[in-house]
Design brief:
Elements lengths: L2 H22 L12 H18 L2 H25 L3 H7 L3 H10 L3 H21 L5 H21 L1 H4 L5 H12 L2 H7 L17 E2 L8 E8 L23 E7 L5 H8 L17 H7 L3 E6 L12 E4 L6 H14 L4 E7 L34 H27 L4 E8 L4 E2 L7 E2 L7 H4 E8 L1 H6 L1 H9 L5 E2 L3 H8 L2 E2 L21 E5 L2 E4 L4
Parallel strand pairs: 2-6, 2-7, 3-11, 4-5, 4-6
Antiparallel strand pairs: 1-12, 3-10, 7-10, 8-9, 13-14
Bound molecules: zinc ion.
The site of zinc ion has 5 residues, from loops.
């Protein structure tokens, strides 16, 4: 091979590496719930190959030059400063953008130097490369166009998020105000994807009570069903209050960031954005005259709830100590009809931090547990996990004590966002939100409690609910069930979900969202 041609190919290889680099470092998803990094990389390679074949050597380097420079800067900002350059440019405006540009000041010389080196590499490659014959080139273009159409159609969320397609698609999404796409593609940007004006077209029959009503949803953390007494676990892991417990509920995902948005929305597991632009079930309550509250010790950005009143607190103590106060405050506020969601920290790892030793079910020497469970310490870890579940249930009991003292028709629904792995099989998995969901981190309980007045007035619904207790339920059924309990009719977009107080679910696939754009059958885990 002539040395000029060899040099040209070497420079082309360097150029390709520079173009692919941002896909691997700056724009590669870092969350386990996010789209597959390999799929994104595939689209990146497709985009560069398309430019390579569609344009001649000169055209390719001219066309990709701005991307090579921007990519280099983005990769550098990502690795050295943990900053997302695209996010800064797209989301910050006014003084924030000025601040971002000022922060670049020490690096302008470096950027100019990089621009110059890139220009030299491009010029060298263009000079050394021979002209390509048109026939194979046309064939390659035809293949690439077909592959691009297939990729874009089959996985649009991946296609439009992949570097360098994302530069165009994000700018366009910003222009068109497609916030659900922006919020998913820039997971650390403070973008609320919920669009104003969304409706559940909710209505209520004329026989709805005129007095005080309180509906409560408690979203717990990391509590799997099989540990609970009514589900075959320790008999002491049960509510003090009489309730109906569903033990076979499949959560929408094995991690908080995917499961909570699904739990409160009308989205199915295969929905493309992480949080959609649709309103949540709280909108249906609001549309029939309820005041809605979201009281949480977890971040707003997990599900971007659209409650009328919200309170966010740090998870600095067990839920009983942080959330009962705001609950009492919400109950004391004016208004006869209230829907209150409590999003707790339940039994999240590290379990010992979730309860006070004096309230524990069993004594555990927390300092002797080590950082992560291993085979030899598993029994003690299970004890500390059970203690955290015991505290989670004590929180539910405490909420019931508070709401039962209010003169209202009251229903409470508790579930956990997902389950937990604790070295349950040969895979030796611990915690949740892993690459693949498991039986242990997707089987959660659903507990329903209603006060005496409510049960008297809704006897047949409550008895039907009790009769369905052994049903194969899923998270998607839960807000329809709570809305059904309140006799609220609304436009349901998912044909597969049921109100468990009116219908026993038949045969259906209980989908689990493994990551964005990827679902698995929850009964085959
Ligand atoms: Zn969680």
């Amino acid at each position: 091979m002539r040395s000029g041609k060899r040099l040209g190919l070497g420079l082309v290889a360097i150029w390709w590496v520079l173009l692919v680099l941002p896909a691997v470092v700056a724009f590669s998803p870092s969350n386990s719930w996010d789209v597959s990094p390999l799929a994104l990389l595939m689209v990146t390679v497709w985009a560069i190959a398309s430019a390579w074949f569609a344009a001649g050597p000169t055209g390719f380097f001219v066309l990709t030059y701005p991307f090579a420079l921007f990519g280099l800067c983005a990769a550098w900002a990502g690795v050295m400063r943990q900053a997302d350059l695209l996010e800064i440019l797209l989301l910050s405006g006014g003084p924030e953008r000025h601040e971002a540009l000022t922060a670049l000041n020490p690096y302008w010389m470096g950027i100019l130097l990089a621009a110059l080196i890139l220009a030299l590499v491009a010029a060298g490659a263009i000079r050394s490369l021979p002209t390509r014959s048109p026939k194979p080139r046309l064939r390659a273009i035809a293949w690439l166009v077909t592959a691009g159409c297939a990729l874009g159609f089959a996985m649009p969320m991946i296609f439009f998020r992949a570097w360098p397609v994302n530069v165009m698609s994000l700018a366009l999404a910003k222009l068109l105000d497609k916030r659900d796409f922006l919020a998913t593609a820039l997971p650390y940007g403070a973008i609320n994807p919920r669009a104003a004006g969304q409706t559940w077209k909710a209505s209520r029959s004329s026989g709805a009570p005129s007095g005080r009503e309180t509906y409560i949803l408690i979203i717990g953390e990391s509590v799997r069903a099989d540990r609970l007494g009514p589900c075959g676990g320790n008999a002491l892991l049960a509510l003090r209050h009489e309730a109906i417990t569903f033990c076979d509920v499949v959560s929408g995902a094995s991690g908080t960031h995917l499961s909570v948005p699904l739990l409160i929305s009308r989205d199915s597991a295969d929905s493309a954005p992480r949080v959609s632009s649709d309103a949540t079930f709280m909108k249906a309550f609001e549309e029939v005259g309820f005041d809605t509250y979201w009281l949480s010790v977890q971040d707003q950005s997990i599900a971007w709830p659209d409650a009328m009143h919200s309170t966010y607190l740090p998870p600095s103590a067990p839920d009983r100590e942080t959330l009962i106060g705001p609950l009492k405050h919400a109950l004391a506020a004016p208004g006869l009809k209230k829907l209150i969601v409590l999003h707790g920290y339940g039994a999240h790892f590290n379990y010992c931090d979730r309860y006070r030793p004096q309230h524990a079910l069993q004594a555990v020497e927390c300092r002797g547990l080590g950082a992560l469970p291993v085979r030899t310490t598993r029994p003690q870890w299970l004890s500390s996990y059970d203690n955290a579940i015991f505290e989670s249930l004590a929180f539910v009991d405490a909420v019931i004590d508070v709401i039962d003292s209010v003169d209202a028709e009251t229903v409470l629904l508790y579930t956990s966002d997902h389950g937990e792995n604790l070295l349950d099989d040969g895979r030796n998995l611990v915690q949740h939100a892993l690459a693949t969901p498991t039986l242990w981190d997707t089987r959660v309980p659903a507990i329903l409690w209603a006060n005496k007045t409510w049960k008297v007035n809704h006897d047949s619904w409550w008895r039907a609910l009790g009769a369905n207790q052994k049903a194969h339920a899923m998270h998607g059924d839960l807000t329809p069930t709570l809305l059904g309990a309140a006799n609220i009719h609304y436009e349901e977009l998912r044909p597969q979900v049921v109100d468990l107080g009116r219908q026993r679910p038949g045969n259906r696939i209980r989908w689990v969202k493994r990551r964005l754009g990827d679902t698995v059958d929850g009964d085959k885990l």
